[in-house]
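Why does residue order matter? Because the sequence determines the fold. Keep that principle in mind as you read this record.
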Amino acid sequence: MTSADDRPIRSGASEPEAPLADLQAFAVELRRMNGEINRMTHGFAAHQQLHPTDVSALAAILDAPSPLTPGALREHLGLTSGAVTACLDRLERAGHVRRARESTDRRVVHVYYEASARTAARDYFMPLAEATARARARFSETELTTVLRFLAAMNEELGEVPSARR
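Structure:
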């Protein structure tokens, strides 16, 4: 298997002047990836007749290690409580989530991702999964471990950026 350094960068621009490890090169590639993911996210939102923020909420609910409360979702998305309520209302009407009161404290509500929504997302995002598999096949396990560590570190660092600067 060849390493990632042996392959040309596929972009609309010519070969970068700076080495790949250059901060500017990282910024360009991260922005490009973010743009492509946003393009797909907006497409899914339109396909499901949702707002792109609704799709961000779905991702947060899906990726959470335990059921989220509307308050935790509000904090994660940086929205007002009214905006989160409207978002959850839309998602619930569309059959993507359900809200449940499971505690003896009836004020506590948890949000769950519905199985039918997983199927819709899986079907729509299959090209993304296939593209990810093709890209992964171009790297060794050692390289993928490094890439995964980098992405986790980036997310950790970005999570520490104050909200006012986001």
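Confidence is low (pLDDT under 50) at residues 1-14.
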